[in-house]
Amino acid sequence: MPDALPRRWRLPLLWLLVTVALAAGLGLRQPQPPDEPRFVLAARSMVDSGQWLLPHRGIELYAEKPPVFMWLQAAAYHVVGSWTWSFLLPSLLAALLSLWLVSDLARRLWSPRHSLYAVAALFCTLQFGLMAKRAQIDMVLVGMTTAALWGLLRHLCEGRNLPALWLAGVAAGVGTVTKGVGFLPLLMVLPWLGWRLYQRRHGRVVDGPHPATLLWLLPAFLLGTAVWLAPLGWALLHEPSAALQSYAHELLFKQTGTRYASAWHHRQPVWYYLQVILTLWLPGSLLLPLLFKPWWRRLRRGDRRPWLLLGWAVLVLAFFSASPGKREVYLLPMLPAMALAVAPLLPGLLRRVCVRRYLFGYSLLLMLATGVLGAMLMTAYPWAVAQLQRRAMPDTLLPVLGEGLLIFAIALATQIVWLRVRRAGTLVLLAHGMLWMLHGLVLMPALDPYASASALMHRVGTRIGPDAELALVAWREQNLLQADRPVREFGFKRPWAEQWHAAGPWLAEAPERRWLLVLDAAMSPCVDPAKVIDIGVANRNRWQLLPGTAWNRQCHAERIGATTEED
Question: What DSSP character marks residue 465?
Fold first, then answer.
């Protein structure tokens, strides 16, 4: 923060910047693929049907994730009354909760002064900001894992604190039924035991709670998982339908243990997370080499705090690296612990000229990149035009996006001239604040009609008229979510040929008023191609619209060119 700013105002102003930046854009866009539409679709189904135990994707059960995140979105809708305003709220509140917990832990573990550095370190990590502004499970998972770490660190570092320990267990349990890896905070027990052994081997006093107190984590964890597993178990005992049993088996076994040990997609090499850290953890990732030596000194002298924070982070990294299936978001729960581990070292690092020059260069590069890209968009540079055309987006976006990027670049250049190298830390903080405001207020709202498929579905609604009936085959979640009327669909995971077996008779019942939207690759040979309307491209898929009169009810040919991907 600028030196002229009174110390007591720095943390409140930082919180103001963080809150405004992360909340910017709330209510200005629709859910966008890949994950947001399916979660909102399931949450909307809960609200409409009143059936909250089992999430649905259309007529099928959605068994890939537990329903806790969808519960939060549905609850937010009940409070706000608008899906546009509510679907991002769980992620935003979880991000703010994570930041507050990190701030409080930094104050307790080190000093009130370090709260500012811990919050700034977490906020200025690219991946944290990106996920805080997306309606995905991962940020809510981070809120729960950080709450569990908060309770564990208070118990293990401050002395016996059973309420905090119970909170840790319950948060880990709820996190586990939110996303299967929510139990990971409990692994912090291992570096704590390692620290105790290290201290004894060096003849040092071992203080802290008795190891037996950690047994309270087990009932607390089970209590947290009972939020969902208890009603699910009750339903399995009293209504043991084949569909419910299949749902439970899919979610509790295939989507957890099987997916971890033998992942069938997102397969990456063992070193994949190194490139994730190097890119998505900017700008802090490039400072890691400067942190290894002071961290090692603190570990050698038996400082319990880095033992727990860094030891847990290494275990999480090893856990995810051991699985063949890897995604960049899996490492997100590590970020709060890393921000805490960095916080006591940041004041010293920021006094080093080389660090300030690096952060200044990072801000300068960000300014140049956005400025050049903005100029390319404003001047309709062929590369920029080609990028929009490849995504079926109109040229009218060029001045909107270009102007936003140029304004950001000019504002950042002004900050660079004002703050210079001497205040490079504050410069990066303000740069990220403006970046997330640009993202939420300009870029995402401008791209939204095409990224969310709302423009495509508006064209569909306009073309068929208000009184027509619409059905979907080989659809995506955003198609069903953005439709302007009740839609008939025939299953999401169901093979395309079977969907056509149900769709054909449906069209034939009222061919004059019924229409079908279908992915072009899934078109049936029983459709008259002369009557098919190419309605456009959305999310890199081409969609076709056909009236009921295009269906040949005498045809019994199967759709050809089937792929395993549709299953």
Answer: -
| Confidence (pLDDT) at 559 | 61
DSSP-derived 3-state class of residue 446: helix
* SS3 of residue 522 by DSSP: helix
CA distance 21 to 165: 33
Contact present, 429 and 124 (Cβ < 8 Å): yes
Closest CA to 261 of 216, 332, 319, 217: 319
Can you give the length of the chain in residues?
567
Output phi, psi for 545, to 5 deg. Answer: -120, 130
By C-alpha distance, which of 429, 423, 421, 345 is closest to 119? Answer: 429
- In 3D, which of 230, 70, 56, 224 has the Cα closest to residue 140? 70
Q: In this structure, are residues 255 and 180 in contact, taking their beta carbons and an 8 Å threshold?
A: yes
Q: Which two tokens stand for residue 467?
A: 């009184």
Quick one: pLDDT at residue 256? 84
SS3 label, residue 504: helix
Residue 346's H or E segment, with its range, is: helix 346-350
Angle between helices 89-109 and 112-123 (to 10 degrees): 140
Q: In angstroms, rounded to a whole number, what is the distance separating the alpha carbons of residues 185 and 171?
A: 9
- At 5 the pLDDT is 64
Q: For residue 447, give the DSSP letter.
A: H
C-alpha span between 310 and 292 (Å, rounded): 11
What secondary structure letter does DSSP report for 549? G
Q: Residue 436's CB: how many other CB atoms inside 10 A?
A: 23
Closest CA to 475 of 494, 455, 459: 494
Residue with tokens 């900017």: 282
Give the helix/strand (H/E) hosting 412: helix 397-419
Which residue ranges in the chain fall short of pLDDT 50? 2-3, 560-567
Pairing between β-strand 60-61 and β-strand 56-57 as defined by DSSP bridges = antiparallel
Contact 232, 52 (CB under 8 A): no
pLDDT at 307: 98
Would you say 446 and 396 are in contact if contact means Cβ atoms under 8 Å apart?
no
Residues 220 and 173 sit within 8 Å (Cβ to Cβ): yes
CB count within 10 Å of CB 392 equals: 16
Q: Distance of CA 520 to CAs 258, 489, 527, 538, 540, Å?
A: 33, 16, 12, 12, 12
Element (H, E) at 315: helix 304-322
Question: How many Å is the Cα radius of gyration of the chain?
Answer: 26
CA distance 385 to 316: 42
The enclosing H or E element of 535 equals strand 533-538
Q: pLDDT tens across 422-461, in order?
A: 999 999 999 999 999 999 999 999 999 999 999 999 999 9
Q: pTM of this prediction?
A: 0.94
